[in-house]
Recover the amino acids of this structure.
């Protein structure tokens, strides 16, 4: 057979085979991979409808629970009432320090200028100790050490006065209209803010990647560079040591003027929220309120009908 004839015959056979395959599979539906079902998500509006937040009985004078995914308050009590905020002040101390891009490995000495002459609080940092700026932030935030906060402000270009001015300027830039700072530690009762303003501060701090480690490590160590000795601290928020809590940012505060205070960014279920509690009645009430908020929110999600709960943003 000639080559041209062979090629023609081969081509004819392939064409017939293709036609038979097409006829055989004409009625066979094309198999498609189904897209994964969206995760059930209960909207903030549904929490407000089914959760009945007015029944949430908290022991804090001021309280705010903010849904961070939608920016919707789930619970509000006196959120624009100005209150002394005690060591919650140190959150702005940290924000100003971190945003300045000053080297975190700079050694800073603790001096007698850092002594608390207002309340007489004690510190595990002895006079003459030298710590890096990073370790001072760790001690000021996690352990709420007042000398550490004072040293951060004192070592600022222009000293304490310039640092406090920077704190107030940053508060103004964030829209914290009812906030005013007079020192870096929060010992002065004229450090005041509101729950609404503090939620804005939490949002700004969330953009700082170091804040989670600074504020949620249960046991922390810093090094006194003068002696080479480590110094142990414990986080002032006991919830960070409990596995049931998923906390990404935290700070406690207490003075007689401010009462017990607690702010957190946490995830309950799958919902990221900010919690602000000011002037809680009693040393443990802020933790009790945090648990009541968690239990209420989880119960509220269970109350939403299943069909409604599968509505996604």
């Amino acid at each position: 057979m000639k080559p041209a004839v062979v090629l023609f015959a081969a081509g004819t056979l392939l064409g017939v085979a293709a036609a038979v395959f097409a006829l055989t599979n004409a009625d066979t539906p094309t198999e498609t991979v189904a897209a994964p079902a969206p995760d059930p998500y209960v909207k903030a509006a549904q929490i407000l409808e089914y959760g009945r937040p007015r029944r949430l009985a908290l022991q804090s004078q001021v309280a705010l629970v903010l849904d961070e995914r939608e920016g919707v308050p789930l619970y509000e009590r006196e959120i624009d009432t100005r209150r002394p905020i005690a060591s919650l002040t140190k959150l702005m101390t940290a924000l100003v320090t971190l945003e300045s891009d000053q080297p975190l490995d700079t050694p800073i000495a603790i001096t007698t200028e850092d002594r608390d002459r207002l309340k007489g609080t004690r510190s595990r940092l002895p006079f003459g100790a030298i710590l890096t700026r990073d370790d001072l932030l760790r001690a000021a935030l996690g352990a709420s050490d007042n000398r550490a906060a004072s040293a951060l402000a004192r070592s600022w270009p222009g000293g304490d006065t310039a640092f406090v001015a920077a704190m107030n300027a940053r508060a103004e830039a964030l829209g914290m209209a009812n906030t005013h700072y007079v020192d870096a530690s929060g010992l002065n009762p004229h450090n005041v803010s509101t729950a609404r303003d503090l939620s804005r501060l939490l949002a700004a701090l969330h953009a700082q990647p170091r804040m989670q480690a600074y504020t949620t490590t249960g046991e922390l160590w810093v090094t006194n560079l003068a002696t080479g000795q480590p110094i142990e601290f414990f986080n002032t928020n006991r919830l960070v040591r409990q596995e049931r809590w998923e906390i990404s940012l935290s700070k406690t505060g207490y003075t007689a003027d401010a009462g017990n205070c607690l702010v957190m960014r946490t995830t309950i279920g799958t919902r990221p929220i900010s919690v602000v509690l000011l002037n809680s009645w009693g040393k443990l009430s802020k933790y009790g309120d945090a648990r009541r908020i968690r239990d209420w929110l989880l119960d509220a999600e269970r109350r939403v009908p299943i069909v409604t709960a599968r509505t996604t943003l």
The chain has one domain: 44-309. The mean pLDDT is 88.
